[in-house]
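notes to self, project folder thing:

trying the whole complex as one job this time. last attempt i did each chain seperately and stitching them together was a nightmare. two parts in total, labels are on each line so i dont mix them up again. if this works i'll redo the older ones the same way
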Amino acid sequence: MSGRMTQTEWVQRVVKPAIFLVCLIPLALLAWDVLNNHLGANPIEKVIRRTGDWTLRFLLITLAITPARRLFDWNWLMRLRRMLGLFVFFYACLHFIIYIGIDQSFDVNEIIKDVIKHKYVTVGFASFLLLIPLAATSTNAMMKRLGGKRWQQLHKSVYAIAIGGVIHYLWLVKADLKEPLIYAAILAVLLGYRLWVKQRQALPTDAARSSIHPSTIRHAK
Amino acid sequence: MLIKKPSDIRPSEITDQQIYLTRREFIRNVAGATAVAALIPALLTPHNVYAGTKLPGVRKGPFGTSEELTPYGDVTSYNNFYEFGTEKEQPALMAKNFRTKPWTVTVEGEVNKPAVYQLEDFIKPHTLEERIYRLRCVEAWSMVIPWVGIPLADIIKRFEPTSKAKYVEFTTLHDPAQMPGQRRAILKWPYVEGLRIDEAMHPLTMLAVGLYGETLPNQNGAPLRLVVPWKYGFKNIKSIVKIRFVEKPPVTAWMTAGPAEYGFYANVNPEVDHPRWSQARERRIGEFFKRKTLMFNGYAEQVAHLYAHMDLNRYF
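result (full assembly):
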């Protein structure tokens, strides 16, 4: 055996499966706590909150991939992004199903009323709906069918979803905004980084090479 | 010549005469101290931390319910008491060392007999009653709790409110050194609540000093809290140090925090939603699915007349 794996092989065969298992730890802990009655007096509220927390956390981690890759020059990180994104969808589904099934007892009328009347639910619901096309187009085949540019355009909606997710949390808290504001701050950094990169790319020297609209250049000055 | 052999008992070994004379008591004391020392770890285990002192001479009060009681463990581990943290489990942990002795209650404002009471003197003239009430939190969960306390009306009569006493304002202790939650401006401290005088005098309204037959655990608002079962839980102000009789409606802590979301009345009402969430249903702690919330938390028969001709959408 030659013994040496290429970096790609190493990421595909070791790092990715390991991260996959790590991403399941929150679910395993939650299941453990449910089975052992560790969730206190209101376990359902706890389960809804924890799955919501982890949806937001995985969303922020997914959005951190691109900046981390650029800052540290770790191109291999890109190989993890789709899987992390799908974990966002996975935890969001759990969160959503418990809300629909246990919190609202599958009562369609109540759910519609709740979504229309209460804006934190509206935003959360909309963010979840927007996640569905992203998950559905995450396969290589779908990527090819859409074509790189259109696919990328579609997946830009993840920024709106992230903002919606944080607002969903901010609007449901009664008085203590500390935690949702931490998520908001991290999201602001991650989105701010992207804006900053965009601005830099729009500087005249770079602009000469790419075909950026002149108005953007003036703006960036 | 007789030479006395020196005693081989050293002076330090000679038992003090006082101890010798009371030797039986001494043995008893040592044995007692050892037993207490052996018990200390047991007293410090979490199970016993919350246990209060058994309250003597409690009689059964009116307005009971046959609904299943929320277990003691849930009542004392799932609390909203922001003075000790905003997470439900925090008050039980953070209030462990809260000092409730000595405790004074100041009665002031529009009364003939303003006074500063030691808690014992405040309670002493009354017989304690057990009342099993539903508690409905504004966050759409509920419990059934056997409170021990005194009808507030009985206490108020002692102070002789004047004709100007239209409202009663209650204030929680302000002591950031003991109440870590007060070091952050989550709410305007100290916590303030209020009732209209007829609400305060209503036979359902009580001041509680205990639950499940024991003194109130710290996380439940020791040593003295308000219980108004037809209003949302946050009206039930905890760890009260001041009761003030006033002419104008008091501005409560939650009205200051969110005037559009929390009104003065805060009556449980399934038809008037919180601006951000539904109040139509609630999760009874221990149950899986939510149940329907009842008008005035099921006390409509007793209290609906207090709000006749009032637009409850406006006076929420």
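what i see at first glance: The longest strand of chain B covers residues 141-151.
need to look closer tmrw
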